[in-house]
Fold each of these.
Amino acid sequence: MRFGPASGTSSRPFWLLALIIGSGTLGMHVLAPVLPLIGADFEVDPGRAQLVVSAYMFALAAGQLAHGPLSDRFGRRPVLLAGLSVYVVSGMLCVLAPTFGTLLMARVLQALGGCAGLVIGRSIVQDTSKGGEAASLIGALNAVLLVSPAVAPVLGLWLGESLGWRFVPLILVAFGSIALLGALFLISETGTARAEPARESIAAYWRLLKSGPFMARVFAGSLTTTTMFGILASSPFIVTGTLGRPLSDAGGFYAVLVAGILAGSLAATRLARRIPTDRLILLAASTGLAGSLLLAASHAWGLTATLFVASGFLYTFMSGLMAPLALTRTVAMVPERRGAATGFFGFSQIFAGAVAVTLSGLASDVVVSTAAVMLVCSGVGLATLLVLRVRPSPG
């Protein structure tokens, strides 16, 4: 599957776009299962060892705020190549890290480099496709990228146990090197560099953030996409605690929830070209709200495995369907600042996901807190979208 630029001759292979966009998120998942090995190697407690993942996530979110505007000003290609280069070099520093502090520093740099691919890869799609076509392609990319959270931990654990944890970041170096070489030879410039002073770029970014319709789209999109991490994170506790199943069953339930995201992403690739985007967005958000209400009602009646799977699937289906639609619709509002818009949207998504995970585990009854998070996020997201529908924004 290939798609060409609006101008220029280079093709953009689907596999390369998936690798570029997925490089940042792969680094988030693959090291998680070998944290005990890292802690033992550097003689640090589990809390400090988890910084290897949490510090990476925060840097992955924050870095998107910079890469978007930079790619608008200097062009997509130079910022992408620079980011992937940092990703590869810092990955080697992770492999060779003599101390835990060095490893943490390298992980932060790795995230800052990897999120360039996350932002700019999606910006390239927006540059070269429009409307339903862009949403369809991003949906297809999201469907492929869902393999990452499923496969990466298994790969990381196997490498860590077989060869040692340092071979795990070495795999990231290998993938990053392929993405870098592919970008160097197969990706041409799709944006338009602006010879403007830094002050003007900052002012333009500030105007973007002060735009009520834009921020409303970002807000609604974040609430209805990455907040599904809340139910994903709490599902093992619901399966073992509320449903009384063994921990070995948690993987099967988790797989069904991930399948909901995959189904939503695949639905987006088929429906985005046939149904108006705003109508499809409202349908997606309504589906998620239905799942939230089902989980809350089921808990009151007596939660069963079937009801939990059904409610969770509806919510994660919303996330998979909503992700490409919300991004495409939001970025279309500011075509002259696609990079900045994409970067801020990505930051907001990761932030919303992190908050959802935290809040889903606050109550003594995890079903109550998870259902509450789902209801608030899907309900407020849908309400915001309905207001935007009544008062349509340009773009």
Note: The domain at 9-186 is CATH 1.20.1250.20 (Growth Hormone; Chain: A;).
Amino acid sequence: MQYGIFSHIEQIDEIEQLLHGAEADGIASVWLTQGFGHDALTVIGAVGRGLSRLRIGTAVVPVYPRHAMALAQQALTTNMLIGGRLVLGVGPSHPQVVEPCWGMSYARPVRYMREYLAALNGALTQRVRFSGEVVTARGDLTIAGDPPVPAVMVSALGPKMLELTGELAAGTVTWMVGPRTLAELTVPAITAAATGAGRPAPEVVVTAAVCVTDDPRRARAAIDPVLGWYDDKPSYRAMLDREGFSRANQMAIVGDAAEVRAEIGRYEAAGATTFAAQLYGTPQERAATRALVGELATASASAGATGADL
């Protein structure tokens, strides 16, 4: 399993420092959220240059307000700017956002995502001819320089979304998904769909709030106002129920270094291919958590090199 960092975008200069620091520390990837603040792909294109190895992903760009051709155009440009290291994570968002904020129907999210992915995959090759029930994309993009096509990931949670993700995308980026759900639903469903479609084994990227601390009760209470937003969102509520959690803050990984390391190990055992930690807590706790992620990344890279030598 590889290791990454998952982060909101608040200050762009801090994201630049995060990216360069992560590469220097041997961390495999950084995943940036897309909300109502800075545009993630623009930020990645602006500050993700000058790196040689670090994968940079969006986790995730909502598809409803962005036509597939427009998103492909932006993603191809960003990917070219950063030397082909972009992972394009997309997702359907939530009816509480799509309908009141954007004035669009969320009546058929799986159908919309299936058609959107078909259109997006075509547009990323710079030539698309797709006409579906709810999505149409016809045209040619003319982005010079033959930019590589980024891997497309989907924030798939339920069985139907996992099935179409395995069929049409490179993998999934999860949030609010625990190791039990990963082992019983996520990994089996997406892997079976990818196999059936003749695709390579899918990536399964887990993002989770993590805090290395000697005061877990205080740390978990501190994250509750942030994670509480997810308590009643239907797709996330279903994931919490699968884990037997009443509150989203129970999904956070909190404890001393040994406890956190063991809990992350449960995700690896469940089939995650990348674990990306969202650092939270006091500055000292965030530093301790970042140090642990760096240690895990170094150990993973060393194990991989040893395996390659053998």
Note: Residues 2-309 form a domain with the TIM Barrel fold (CATH 3.20.20.30).
